[in-house]
TrEMBL record:
InterPro entries reported in the protein's UniProt record: Leucine_aapep/pepB, Macro_dom-like, Peptidase_M17_C, Peptidase_M17_N_1
GO MF terms, alphabetically ordered: aminopeptidase activity
SUPFAM superfamilies: Zn-dependent exopeptidases
Protein name: Leucyl aminopeptidase family protein
The organism's taxonomic lineage, starting at the top: Bacteria, Pseudomonadati, Pseudomonadota, Alphaproteobacteria, Sphingomonadales
Length: 461
């Protein structure tokens, strides 16, 4: 994982290159007050007052240069306003002139994220940002590391990250924070989590399905459950995906990556909760014993599911995990899953749909998303669409015919396995950034993670 620790430091008046922040509204006035050599440098670099644009300004000595960058509003910085600088400036130490970097420290760190597991070139040096608010450093580092964990796990090829590797990630967390880890597989999985077993049974030796559970915190504390879909590769099963659809299916465990990262944030901060992390980990593979369209599956809860599409496997394994979570009577359940293409059609890659029947929980998550530039959009659990889940031969189907309202019907399917008394939110995350943005490179990425963490802190701190 990228080591972000050296990239933030307390400001003790040590030598540093100045970063001047200018917004479009104040640009002309600022430019008019600059010395001739700065105006000449700006003209030579063709700086325009547009977002993330920057220019190097000469100093009195070769090593005393500074930089100006354009931000949307100097009075209200975003997490990403310094991220492009962190990607492009030479290694060295920097200070934001006249401002505390505040929330922009996160983008500064994530602009220096690198996934280099498969690369041979050496890493670049660090760009260090000074802050007069050293108390914010630890939390910013925790958020950056949580985001990097999601990115690293999603970016890793499926050949190097299967159910056993997800188990290993959970084991490290358990040992680090003194949590109890339980892993169910083999005959016990078939008996206790039958839909997890059937989805993953076609995977080869060493990639067997399993249910991973971690429990941490005082037994008398409020109980919360965090559930993450852990499909380490999704071929589509016998309803096989085409090559384009399969290309990014290493990211189908993105929900598990989010759940692991959020669970670690909870334990690092010693939030006063009883945490139950659940990851059903499988590979949806093709073999002679793969589950088939038309099979009727029995769930842990007891409901039977007519399998109408082997490529709608994520909701099957989540159903068993949500049932298990509900058995411990949690007051709150959050699940993260790369669940439906319909969610991407509706809202695109950047905006995860939020499904919940709890208005207070929805308001808290949406407010946290807005406050932390980590947005989501509430979608309806439209009761009238429940009839789409009817089966002629079983209690329900996993994928209705026709493909209409696909993200909603998937959420309604999950709702069948959630206890009515628990506050529950389902986040259908993409876990992938198809186009790079400052501080957010193309590849695996975290969505709604910071918002969920902010909500938990506000609810339980």
């Amino acid at each position: 994982m990228t080591d972000f620790t050296p990239c933030l430091a307390p400001d003790r008046s040590q030598p540093a290159h100045a970063i001047h922040l200018v917004d479009p509204a104040g640009y002309d006035d600022w430019l008019s007050r600059q010395p001739a050599r700065h105006r000449a440098a700006i003209a030579a670099q063709r700086l325009k007052p547009t977002g993330y644009a920057s220019a190097i300004l000469p100093g009195d000595a070769p090593e005393s240069w500074s930089v100006v960058t354009i931000v949307a509003n100097t009075a209200s910085l975003s997490p990403w306003c310094l991220a492009r600088l962190a990607e492009t400036l030479p290694e060295g130490t920097y200070r934001v002139e006249g401002h505390e970097p505040g929330v922009a420290m996160l983008g500064w760190l994530l602009g220096q994220y690198r996934f280099d597991r498969y690369r041979s070139e050496p890493p670049t040096g660090d760009r260090v940002l000074l802050t007069g608010e050293p108390g914010r450093i630890d939390e910013t580092l925790r958020l950056a590391r949580a985001t990097a964990k999601v990115r690293d796990l999603v970016n890793t090829g499926a050949g190097d990250l299967g159910p056993a590797e997800l188990e290993a990630e959970a084991s490290v967390l358990a040992k680090t924070y003194g949590a109890a880890l339980t892993v169910t597989k083999g005959p016990e999985l078939e008996r206790g989590f039958p839909m997890v077993h059937v989805v993953g049974q076609a995977a080869g030796r060493g990639r067997e399905p399993r249910m991973i559970e971690l429990v941490w915190g005082r037994p008398d504390a409020p109980r919360i459950a965090i559930v993450g879909k852990g499909v380490c590769f999704d071929s589509g099963g016998l309803d096989i995906k085409n090559s384009a659809g399969m290309r990014l299916m290493k990211k189908d465990m993105g929900g598990a990556a989010h759940a692991l990262a959020l669970a670690e944030l909870v334990m690092q901060a010693r939030l006063p909760v009883r945490l139950h992390l659940l990851i059903p980990a499988v590979e949806n593979a093709i073999a002679g014993n793969a589950f088939r369209p038309g099979d009727v599956l029995r769930s842990r809860q007891g409901l039977t599911v007519e399998n109408t599409n082997t490529d709608a496997e994520g909701r099957l394994i989540l159903a068993d995990a949500l049932t298990r979570a509900g058995e411990e009577k949690p007051e709150l359940i959050l699940d993260f899953a790369t669940l439906t293409g319909a969610a991407r059609v509706a809202l695109g890659p950047d905006l995860p749909p939020l499904f919940t029947g709890d208005d207070a929980l929805a308001d808290a998550l949406l407010a946290a998303g807005k406050a932390h530039a980590d947005p989501m959009w509430r979608m309806p659990l439209w009761d009238a669409y429940d009839e789409m889940l009817k089966s002629d031969i079983a209690d329900l189907v996993n994928a209705p015919e026709g493909g209409l309202a696909g993200a909603i019907t998937a959420a309604l399917f999950l709702r069948r396995f959630v206890p009515a008394e628990a506050a529950w939110a389902h986040l259908d995350v993409f876990a992938w950034r198809p186009v790079a943005k400052p501080g957010r490179p193309k590849g695996g990425d975290a969505y709604a993670l910071r918002a969920a963490w902010a909500m938990l802190k506000a609810r339980y701190a």
